[in-house]
Structures are given as structure tokens and as C-alpha cells.
User: Fold this.
Amino acid sequence: MIHLENVHKAFANGHAALAGVDLEIARGEVFGIIGRSGAGKSTLVRLLNGLERPTAGKVEIDGIALDGLSGEGLRALRRRVGMIFQNFGLLGSRTIFDNVALPLRIAGADKARIAARVPELLARVGLADHRAKYPAQLSGGQKQRVGIARALATDPDILLCDEATSALDPETTRSILALLGDLNRELGLTIVLITHEMEVVRQVCDRVAVLHAGRVVEAGSVADVFLRPRAAETRALIDEDGEDARPLAFDGPLARLTLQGDAVLQPVLTRIARETGTDFVILDGRIGRLRDASFGQLTLGLSGGNTEAALAALRQHGEVAA
Amino acid sequence: MSGWFANVDWSEIGQACLDTLAMLGGSLLLTLALGLPLGVLLFLTSPGQVWQNRVVSGGLALAVNLLRSVPFIILLIVMIPLTVLLAGTSLGVAGAIPPLVVGAAPFFARLVETALREVDRNTIEAVQAMGATTRDLVFRALLPEALPGILAGATVTAIALVSFTAMAGAVGAGGLGDLAIRFGYQRFQTDVMLVTVALLLVLVQLLQMAGDRLVRHFTRR
Ligand SMILES: Nc1ncnc2c1ncn2[C@@H]1O[C@H](COP(=O)(O)OP(=O)(O)O)[C@@H](O)[C@H]1O
Ligand SMILES: [Mg+2]
Assistant:
């Protein structure tokens, strides 16, 4: 649905923000783009609704090339692509109702349609009681909900999120991400989500691309990229996410076990310990969820018993790297 | 009372008040009407905005700065031929309005531009991302968002115009400033000077209060 081919973007000052980006985003997926500040994420996402023009390369949405669009063609595309922002971008001088109505008014909707549609949108984001308030009277999370309702007003197929949760506390972030996940499932909305936080990608994305210095250094399913990172930049992002990435020293054979799906809930270690007489020391571990799937990743020290047999048994339940 | 203000001709003061109010009202209306679009144009053509254009924005900025750097008293004099062309006379209330507008509109335009610059970048982008035309952007987002700042700018401009009208009085425009100069200054009638200054002060105070009230009314935070 979204297709980027060898996209370059250099700013007037000569700075190359994007240096050859290829990307393919499918209809109905939640696609994350993660990278450090300055990596080019905002520039990339702004290409998708023509807020920014590439200096070279191709940007297509549903087969429509964006560089051929201007005037009414570009405005029509923008009505199909909603966008939300880190600082919300609400109009402080307008009520919540009028903020959400604005895209409809711009699209030329009549009064009756606006009067019907806006309450529907506000109810969808859980703000039905706040229509007469002004943005300054809302919390950050509520403001972003208004932003989402506004972005959805013209029934877009695609929602672009530029650091949409970066100004929010962790709990509010989770609730906004849960809302985005629901919208993706219920409306089949394609979501492109820019973030510098691994946690955001883990909670809501299906696939992810890692952007570094204007290039995609790694892309794939969140499970692949998160559990089996290949690029050094990805590993660094994941490591920063945990508290202390330095491995504990252990005198003996080591195994890094990755479990996904049902295996996470099985008593794998104790069973193998009983059967092989090998004891396990857990040196490092993460257990949790990637969007809706569970995962576990443990670094184990093996001690005593038949360690070869224990390793073989571990391999039957998940991936093992030494 | 009459012993204290022996030189004061109250009917003349009354006429001067009306003249000052007429000059202020007429020039303020025209200043706002010309300065607002000029300020919007200054903003839209500046770097990073929808109509960014170095030549237009540089040219406008130069013209605005030129008019702002000419002392008003000089502007009054050099504009006389143009004033006669526009108003039919260079004297009286009508003759004062063209130079007042030319002096104040660039000033107000800059204040409008500054107010527009305060509008959050994300808000402008959000409205563009909705598929807004530039016209939508200006009328549905920029002007409503910048309204308190624009009203504050209009207040400052109105007060500047009060002191401009007093100066215009010096070259035959009439009004309170004219009285202050002719009687209060040139004939040492201190009582006339005091009365006119007090009236100008009241006018400035009223303008400031009305402006502040409007700004507060349209500020939503
Ligand atoms: N309008 C601009 N002019 C010049 N440089 C810019 C502009 N916008 C962004 N940049 C630069 O491009 C790089 C990428 O910016 P951005 O896409 O905002 O990164 P991110 O969103 O990943 O933090 C940064 O180095 C930034 O300074
Ligand atoms: Mg950014």
C-alpha cells in the first residue's frame, strides 16, 4: 500500500536526512519506524503525506506517485492519510468539537454530517463528555485522543504517528497505543508509527524498520528484529531498553534460549532439569509480549548433569544460541 | 474651576477631542485593513512557510522597515503631495489620515507577522495534513489561533496612533496635539497643556483597557 524506492532527501542546507530508503508497508499493518533522534524518522513520515518532497526516489501510496500530485490531487490524498503529532497540534482557540470538525469543514462536509460524525468520533476515542472544552483544559493523553479523532474524521486508510506518545507518561502511552491497536483491528487502518522507544514498537507494531543516519539498517517482523537483531544499531537500541546490558560472568556452558508462543507458558527448565540432572542459572532474561504474542528470552548458565542432553532438550522447545 | 483653567476654551477642547477621535478612528480602521493582509503575506512568504519566496519576502521586509525607520514627522512632510492626491487636502482630519496609515500599517503588519509566528508549528502542519488550502489555513487556523496576539498588536498600534495624531497636529491636522502645541507650548498656557495631556492619557488608558479585555476574552488557557 505504501511503497518507497531509493528515496533521498537533502535539505536546502545540504544536510542529507534520508540517503536511499526502500520500504514496503502492507495494507492493515501497524508498521513501526524506530531510530535515534535525528535519524530521519520525521522526514520519512512527512514524505507520506507530501508535507515534505523527496529530492530523489519514488513515494507511492496505492500505486499513486506522490511527486505527480499538487493542488487538489494532493489535498485529496491528504484526506486519505491522517496524521498525529508529538505536541498534538490542536487549535487552542477552538473547542474539542470544532477541532474534530475542522477536517470535515475543510473537506466541505455539510452541517448535518458534521453534527452526526463528530460525536461519533469523540465517543470512539472516549471523549464524548468533553466536546465543549478547550484543549488547554485536557490532559496530554486526552489531547492526543482529540488528535486521533481529528485524524480519523475524513475516514482515512492510513494513520501517520510522529512520536505520538513521546510527550506522555508510560501509563498514558499504553492507553493510547491500545487505542491505536483497536483502531487497526476494527477499521483495518494501516498505521505508520515513528518512535525512538522500543517499548512502543513492542506493544503495538507488527513489523518494524530501524532507521539510522537516513538509511534502513534492518527491517522485519517485530519478533525477528527484537529477538534476533542483526544490525549493531538495532542491538544498541534494544540494549538501552533494558537496565544493564552487561552479561554476568559464569564459569561453564552458556545457552541463550528464545521461546515464542505457547512454549513460554510451559515449565521447560524445571522439566529438563529433572530429566537431565542439569541445573540452570538464569543470568539474564526477558519475558513479555510483542503486540499479542508472548515471548521469553533467557541467558542460562548450565551446571552439572548431562549438559549436552540438556542443550538438546532446550532446542526442542525454542531456539538456542551458545 | 475657571480660575484654575483661565485659558481653557472648553468648546475648542471638545472640537479637538472629536478631531482626534476622528483621526484615530479613521486611521486605525485603514491601518488594520491594510496591515493585516500585509502581515499575513509577510508570514506566508517567509522561509519554511507555504508561499516561501525570498524575493517577495525580502522586498516586503525592506519596504516595511524603510517606512518604519522614517521618523513620523518627516513622513508627514514628504507625503504631502501624495496626501493631497489621496485626500484632496493635506490639512485637517482628512489630510492626516494618509500619513497616519502609511506610518502605522507597516508597524501593525510586523506585529501581525510576529503573532502568526507564535502559532505552533505542529498545528500548522496538522491543518495542512488535513488537506487544507492556503485560504483554509489562514482563515480557519492561523488567524483564529493568533487572534489574541493580533488584538494585542492592534492595541499597541492604536496607542502609537494617538501619539502620531498629536504629531500630525503640528502640521495643521487639528486635534488635541494641535492644541497642546499651539497654546500649551507656543503660548506657555500650561493649563491648556495639562488638560490636553490629561485627555490624551485618558484616551490611551481606555484603549489599553479595551484591548486587554479583548485579548483576555479571546485567550483560551
Ligand atoms: N527543514 C530542515 N532543514 C534542514 N535540516 C533538517 C530539516 N528538518 C530536519 N533536518 C535535519 O534532518 C535530520 C533528520 O531530522 P528528522 O527527520 O526530524 O529526525 P528524527 O525525526 O528521526 O529525529 C536531522 O539531522 C535534522 O536536523
Ligand atoms: Mg522527529
Observations:
- The pocket of adenosine-5'-diphosphate (ligand 1) is lined by residues A 11, 13, 15, 17, 35, 37-43 (CB under 6 Å).
